[in-house]
C-alpha cells in the first residue's frame, strides 16, 4: 500500500488523481513544470462523451466516468463555495448525424452496437433531429441522439480538483520540472530529480499528458505516448442556436484511426459564455505549434455542412493542443511492471477530460489495494496490444 | 552570360509612416512592392485624414509633415511597380518551413512583376511565411481572400494606445486618446463641449490640440507623471526631447497651440473615476504620488462631457509573433541595424519596434524597405535615415522613464470596475478567482474568469490583466520553500516574457496576451471559401508545389 505519492503533471488527470488520493488519506505532492492547467487540459474542449466510443474497455471507462461527474460537480461546489467559478457542467446530450447517403447505415449500425453495450443511443427520425436542432442542415441522412453526453469547462474543472486536493492536504508545486529518477539498489524508484532539487517519493505517478513519453524516458522507461495535434475554432458570442453537441458521423473514423495524416470531423457546440466551438482536427506532426490555414479552413468547411447559418458567424480565435495518443487507443492506468514505484495515468488522447475521474478511481484502488470499480486489466501497461511498442528503443 | 536577376518582391504590411517609407525605399532599390493596409486610406495613425470624397483645405494645418505624406503617397500611387491594397486585413501569417520551400520564385502578384519573372535568382530564399489577407469592407458581405508568399516581408503594423481602467471608464463619452484623435482628424467631429485629456506621455499634447481644433473646450491635460520624473526624462521642459531638436520644435508648436486655446497642462494628476448615469457627466481628478497612487484628500470633481485617456502604447505584435519574430524584454520586435527581425526575410519598422514618433517611424521604414529590397544598412543613400534613427534611438526609453505606467494605478480600482469590458469581468472577480485557484497561469486565469476572451481578444485589457495578476506575491505558483516560482512561467508581468526564439506559434506552452494566431475576426464563410483564383497570388508558387 502506498502512503505518499508524487504526481508529475497538473493537468486534469494529475489533478483528479491528486484529489482522489488526498481524499483517501494519501500524502500527495504535485509537480508541474509550468502553471497548473497550462497543458493539454487548457487546450481542448470539455466534452464528456459516450457517443464516440465503440463497445470495449474505453466505453466501459467512459460510462463509469459519466456516472461520477454529477456527484463530483455537486461535491466541489459545496466544498469550494460560491466564490469559485462554476464548472459549467451540463448534460446537454449529443446529436450525431450523417451528412451523406453512404454514411447513414454505418452510423445506425454503430449506435446499435453501443445500445447492446448499454449506452442510451436513440436512432431518431431526421425530423425529430431538426426539432432538437432547428438550425441544423435539413439535408442530413441519419441521426442518433445520446442523452448522456455532457460537457464541463476543463480548465475550471482542473483548478477545482486541484483546489480540493489542496484542501485535503495535497501540495501543488508549479514551475518545477521533473528531469530524472532516484533509484535504490534494487532499482526501485524512490524519488525524482527536479529543477528544484531532489524530491523523495514513496511512489511516483506519471501524468504528464503528451509529454509522458519524454518524461518516462528521463525516468528510464519507455512509454509510447505521442502527441496528436488538434485545433479548435471559437466564434464571437451569438444568440443561442446550437443546443446539443452536434457531430457528423465522420468523427468516429477520426478518433479510431491511427492515420498520421490530417483528419477533421465536425463537432459543433455552444459554450456557457455564448461562443460556439468548432472542432477539430487530428494529425500527427510532433509538437509542431504553427498555425495551419488549410487545417482551420477544413474545420470551417465541415462545420458549415452541419450548420449552414454559421457562414455569417465570425471566428475570433483559434487554439489547439496535443492529445496524448497511444498506439492502441487506450490510456495507460496503473503500475509499471518494469520499474517498482512507478505508476502511470497517461495516454487519454481526445477523452482525458471525461475519463479523468474514472482514471483516478482506478488508480486509488490500485495504489491502496482496494476493489477496482471496473476491470483495470485492459488499461495495464502489460497488455498485449502494447507489447510491441515497449521494446522499440531497447 | 549574365544571369538575369529576378525582381525581388517586397510585401509591406501597414501603410502608416513606417510602411509608406519602406515601400518607397524598396521601390527605389528596384523591388516590386505590394503595400497593404486594413484601413481605407494610407497614412496610419499619424496621418489620419478625411476621405477624398470630403476633402479639406485644412489637412496641411492639422498634420505635421503633411507634405511628406503627400509626397510619399503620390509617388507610390503613380508607380506601376507598387500595388497599394487598402481594406486589406492580414488575418493570419503562417510559418512555412525553409525545407518546404522547393521553389525560389516568390509569390508576388504576377501583374506587379513587370520584369519577365520566369528567371529566378537561385540565391534568393523567400521569407518563410504565407501572408493571408482578406480584401474588402469588413462589414461587407464577402471579402476576397489573397495569399502572399513574398521574398521579403516588412511588418509596420504600429501600436495602439493603452488605457488603464478606472471606475466609470466604460461610460459613453470616455475615449482612448487614439480614438479621440481619429475622430478629430479623420471625422472632424467634436467629442463634446468640455473635454478632459488625461493619462501619460507626450502624445497627450497633440491629442489635446486636435480636439481643440474641432472647437471643443479642452479643460486641461492631466499628466500622471510627476514633474521630477518629467524633468529627468525630458529636460528641461516636458515637450522638449533631449537630442531631438526637430521633435522639440514640433511639440513646442503644440504648446503654442495650447496657449492659444488656453489649455492648462498639469502634472502629477490623474482621472481616477468618471461619473454619470448614461454617459460621462463628471470626472474625479486626484493628485497622485510618484507611483501614481492617489493622494487622499486631493480629489476634485470636474464637470465634463468627454474624457480622452491614454496611458501608453501597446505595439500590435500579433503578426510578428505569428511570423516567429523574437521580441525584446520590453516586448517590442527585436531588430538589428538593418531592421531585420530574427526571421530571415522578415523586417520590422515603426512603432512595433519601439515608440519613437513619426520621424523615427519614417527613418526605420526607409531602412527596412531598402534592406528588404536587397540593400545594405551601410549604403550611402541611407545615410540620412540612419542618422535620423540614431537621433531618435532611446526616445522610447525616455518616454518609458518619464511616463511609464507606475504600479499605484491599481488603487484606482473598485471591486466592480470592469477590467475586461468585452466579457464584463470586474476587478473583484479577477482577484477572488486568483485567490481561489492560488493564482496559477495566465492562460488558466483567462479561461477561469474569461478576462481577455472577448471580441477584442485582449487588445484593450490584456496587459492590464497580466499586470493585475502579476501584482501579487504568489502568482508564479506556490512553492513549498515559500518563494514564488517564476522562471519560465506564463504569469507575472516581469516573469512572463517568452525569450525562446520560437516565440511564435499557436500552441506555445507559455501564454502572452499578445499572441493572436487569428489576427482579426473573419466570417466562417470567408474562411471556408476557397480563395478567388483570379486574385490569389499563390499560383506562382503552386507551380513548384504540385
Ligand atoms: C483540440 C483538442 C480537443 C479535445 N477535446 C476533448 C474533449 O472534448 N473531451 C475530452 O475529454 N478530452 C478532450 N481532449 C483531450 C484532453 O484535453 C486530454 O486528454 C487531457 O487534457 C489530458 O490531460 P493530462 O492531465 O493527461 O495532460 P495535460 O493537461 O497535458 O497535463 C500534463 C501536465 O504535465 C506537465 N508536465 C509535462 N512534463 C513534465 C515534467 N517533466 N515535469 C513536470 N511537469 C510536466 C505539463 O506541463 C502539463 O501541465 C482534447 C484535446 C485537444 C488537443
Ligand atoms: C494618440 C496619438 C497621438 C500621436 N501624436 C504624435 C505626435 O504628435 N507626433 C509624433 O511624432 N507621433 C505621434 N504619435 C505617434 C505616431 O502616430 C506614430 O509614431 C506613427 O504613426 C507610427 O507609425 P507606424 O507606421 O509605425 O504605425 P501606424 O501609423 O500606427 O500605422 C500602422 C498601420 O498598420 C495597419 N495595420 C495594422 N495591423 C494590420 C493588419 N493586421 N492588416 C493590415 N493592416 C494593418 C493599420 O491599419 C495602420 O494603418 C501619436 C500616436 C497616437 C496613438
From TrEMBL, chain A:
Q: Name one GO molecular function term.
A: oxidoreductase activity
Q: Which Pfam family would be a valid example here?
A: DAO
Gene3D superfamilies assigned to the protein according to its UniProt record, in alphabetical order: D-Amino Acid Oxidase, subunit A, domain 2, FAD/NAD(P)-binding domain
UniProt xrefs under InterPro entries = FAD-dep_OxRdtase (IPR006076), FAD/NAD-bd_sf (IPR036188)
> Which residues belong to any copy of the FAD dependent oxidoreductase domain?
4-364
Q: Which UniProt keywords apply?
A: Oxidoreductase
Q: Could you name the Gene Ontology cellular component terms for this entry?
A: cytoplasm
UniProt keyword Oxidoreductase present: yes
- What is the protein's name according to its record? Glycine/D-amino acid oxidase-like deaminating enzyme
Automatic annotation (TrEMBL), chain B:
Q: Does the keyword Lipoprotein apply?
A: no
Q: Which Pfam families match?
A: Pyr_redox_2
Recorded superkingdom: Bacteria
Gene Ontology molecular functions = oxidoreductase activity
Report the residue ranges that make up the FAD/NAD(P)-binding domain in this protein.
Answer: 9-227, 261-365
Composition bias of kind Basic and acidic residues appears in 507-517
- Per UniProt, which keywords does this protein have? Oxidoreductase
InterPro entries, from UniProt? BFD-like_2Fe2S-bd_dom_sf, FAD/NAD-bd_sf, FAD/NAD-binding_dom, Metab_Enz_Cyan_OpOx_G3PDH, Opine_Oxase_asu/HCN_bsu
Q: Where is this region: Disordered?
A: 507-546
**PANTHER family named in the record:** ANAEROBIC GLYCEROL-3-PHOSPHATE DEHYDROGENASE SUBUNIT B (PTHR42949)
Spell out the protein name for this chain: NADPH-dependent 2,4-dienoyl-CoA reductase/sulfur reductase-like enzyme
Q: Whose protein is this, by species?
A: Agromyces terreus
Amino acid at each position: 500500500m502506498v502512503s505518499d505519492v508524487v504526481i508529475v503533471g497538473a493537468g486534469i488527470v494529475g489533478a483528479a488523481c491528486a484529489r482522489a488520493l488526498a481524499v483517501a488519506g494519501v500524502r500527495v505532492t504535485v509537480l508541474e513544470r509550468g502553471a497548473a492547467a497550462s497543458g493539454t487540459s487548457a487546450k481542448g474542449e470539455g466534452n464528456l462523451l459516450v457517443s464516440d466510443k465503440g463497445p470495449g474497455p474505453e466505453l466501459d471507462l467512459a460510462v463509469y466516468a459519466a456516472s461520477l461527474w454529477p456527484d463530483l460537480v455537486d461535491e466541489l461546489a459545496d466544498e469550494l463555495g460560491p466564490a469559485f467559478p462554476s464548472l459549467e457542467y451540463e448534460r446537454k446530450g449529443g446529436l450525431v448525424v450523417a451528412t451523406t447517403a453512404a454514411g447513414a447505415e454505418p452510423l445506425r449500425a454503430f449506435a446499435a452496437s453501443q445500445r447492446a453495450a448499454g449506452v442510451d443511443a436513440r436512432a431518431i427520425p431526421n425530423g425529430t433531429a431538426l426539432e432538437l436542432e432547428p438550425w441544423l442542415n435539413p439535408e442530413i441522412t441519419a441521426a442518433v441522439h445520446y442523452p448522456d453526453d455532457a460537457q464541463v469547462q476543463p480548465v475550471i474543472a482542473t483548478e477545482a480538483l486541484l483546489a480540493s486536493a489542496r484542501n485535503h492536504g495535497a501540495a501543488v508545486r508549479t514551475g518545477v520540472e521533473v528531469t530524472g529518477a532516484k533509484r535504490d539498489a534494487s532499482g526501485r524508484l524512490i524519488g525524482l530529480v527536479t529543477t528544484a532539487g531532489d524530491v523523495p517519493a514513496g511512489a511516483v505517478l506519471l501524468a504528464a499528458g503528451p509529454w509522458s513519453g519524454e518524461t518516462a524516458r528521463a525516468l528510464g522507461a519507455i512509454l509510447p505516448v505521442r502527441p496528436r495535434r488538434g485545433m479548435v475554432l471559437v466564434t464571437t458570442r451569438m444568440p443561442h442556436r446550437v443546443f446539443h453537441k452536434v457531430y457528423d458521423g465522420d468523427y468516429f473514423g477520426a478518433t479510431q484511426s491511427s492515420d498520421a495524416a490530417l483528419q477533421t470531423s465536425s463537432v459543433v457546440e455552444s459554450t456557457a459564455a455564448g461562443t460556439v466551438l468548432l472542432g477539430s482536427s487530428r494529425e500527427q506532426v510532433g509538437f509542431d505549434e504553427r498555425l495551419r490555414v488549410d487545417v482551420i479552413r477544413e474545420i470551417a468547411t465541415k462545420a458549415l455542412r452541419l450548420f449552414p447559418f454559421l457562414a455569417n458567424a465570425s471566428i475570433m480565435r483559434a487554439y489547439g493542443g496535443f492529445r496524448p495518443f497511444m498506439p492502441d487507443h487506450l490510456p495507460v492506468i496503473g503500475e509499471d511492471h518494469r520499474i517498482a514505484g512507478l505508476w502511470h495515468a497517461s495516454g487519454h488522447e481526445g477523452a482525458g477530460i471525461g475519463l479523468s475521474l474514472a482514471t483516478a478511481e482506478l488508480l486509488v484502488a490500485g495504489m491502496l489495494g482496494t476493489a477496482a470499480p471496473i476491470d483495470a486489466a485492459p488499461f495495464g501497461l502489460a497488455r498485449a496490444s502494447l507489447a510491441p511498442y515497449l521494446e522499440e528503443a531497447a | 552570360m549574365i544571369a538575369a536577376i529576378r525582381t525581388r518582391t517586397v510585401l509591406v504590411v501597414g501603410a502608416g509612416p513606417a510602411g509608406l517609407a519602406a515601400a518607397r525605399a524598396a521601390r527605389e532599390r528596384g523591388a516590386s512592392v505590394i503595400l497593404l493596409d486594413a484601413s481605407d486610406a494610407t497614412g496610419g495613425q499619424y496621418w489620419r485624414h478625411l476621405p477624398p470624397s470630403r476633402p479639406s483645405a485644412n489637412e496641411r494645418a492639422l498634420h505635421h509633415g503633411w507634405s511628406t505624406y503627400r509626397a510619399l503617397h503620390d509617388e507610390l500611387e503613380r508607380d506601376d511597380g507598387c500595388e497599394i491594397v487598402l481594406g486589406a486585413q492580414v488575418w493570419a501569417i503562417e510559418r512555412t518551413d525553409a525545407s518546404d520551400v522547393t521553389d525560389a520564385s516568390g509569390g508576388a502578384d504576377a501583374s506587379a512583376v513587370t520584369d519577365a519573372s520566369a528567371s529566378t535568382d537561385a540565391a534568393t530564399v523567400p521569407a518563410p511565411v504565407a501572408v493571408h489577407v482578406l480584401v474588402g469592407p469588413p462589414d461587407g458581405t464577402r471579402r476576397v481572400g489573397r495569399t502572399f508568399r513574398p521574398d521579403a516581408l516588412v511588418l509596420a503594423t504600429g501600436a495602439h494606445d493603452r488605457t488603464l481602467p478606472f471606475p466609470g471608464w466604460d461610460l459613453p463619452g470616455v475615449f482612448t486618446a487614439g480614438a479621440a484623435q481619429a475622430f478629430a482628424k479623420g471625422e472632424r467631429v467634436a467629442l463634446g463641449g468640455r473635454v478632459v485629456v488625461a493619462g501619460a506621455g507626450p502624445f497627450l499634447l497633440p491629442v489635446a490640440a486636435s480636439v481643440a481644433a474641432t472647437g471643443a473646450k479642452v479643460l486641461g491635460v492631466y499628466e500622471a507623471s510627476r514633474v521630477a520624473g518629467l524633468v529627468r526624462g525630458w529636460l528641461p521642459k516636458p515637450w522638449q526631447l533631449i537630442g531631438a531638436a526637430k521633435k522639440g520644435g514640433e511639440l513646442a508648436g503644440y504648446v503654442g497651440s495650447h496657449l492659444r486655446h488656453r489649455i492648462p497642462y498639469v502634472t502629477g494628476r490623474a482621472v481616477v473615476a468618471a461619473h454619470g448615469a448614461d454617459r460621462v457627466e463628471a470626472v474625479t481628478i486626484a493628485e497622485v504620488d510618484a507611483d501614481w497612487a492617489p493622494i487622499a484628500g486631493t480629489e476634485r470633481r470636474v464637470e465634463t462631457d468627454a474624457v480622452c485617456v491614454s496611458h501608453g502604447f501597446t505595439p500590435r505584435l500579433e503578426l510578428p509573433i505569428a511570423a516567429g519574430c523574437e521580441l525584446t524584454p520590453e516586448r517590442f520586435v527585436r531588430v538589428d541595424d538593418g531592421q531585420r527581425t530574427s526571421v530571415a526575410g522578415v523586417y520590422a519598422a515603426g512603432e512595433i519596434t519601439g515608440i519613437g514618433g513619426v520621424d523615427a517611424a519614417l527613418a526605420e521604414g526607409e531602412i527596412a524597405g531598402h534592406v528588404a529590397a536587397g540593400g545594405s544598412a551601410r549604403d550611402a543613400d541611407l545615410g540620412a535615415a540612419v542618422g535620423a534613427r540614431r537621433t531618435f534611438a532611446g526616445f522610447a526609453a525616455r518616454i518609458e522613464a518619464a511616463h511609464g505606467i507606475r504600479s499605484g494605478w491599481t488603487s484606482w480600482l473598485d471591486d466592480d470596475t470592469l477590467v475586461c469590458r468585452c466579457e464584463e469581468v470586474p476587478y473583484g472577480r479577477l482577484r477572488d478567482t486568483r485567490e481561489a485557484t492560488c493564482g496559477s497561469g495566465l492562460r488558466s486565469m483567462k479561461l477561469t474568469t474569461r478576462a481577455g476572451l472577448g471580441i477584442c481578444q485582449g487588445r484593450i485589457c490584456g496587459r492590464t490583466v497580466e499586470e493585475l495578476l502579476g501584482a501579487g506575491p504568489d502568482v508564479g505558483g506556490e512553492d513549498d520553500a515559500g518563494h514564488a516560482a517564476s522562471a519560465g512561467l506564463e504569469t507575472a508581468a516581469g516573469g512572463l516574457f517568452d525569450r525562446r526564439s520560437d516565440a511564435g506559434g499557436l500552441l506555445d506552452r507559455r501564454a502572452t496576451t499578445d499572441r493572436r494566431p487569428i489576427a482579426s475576426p473573419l466570417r466562417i464563410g470567408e474562411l471556408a471559401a476557397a480563395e478567388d483564383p483570379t486574385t490569389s497570388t499563390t499560383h506562382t508558387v503552386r507551380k513548384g508545389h504540385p
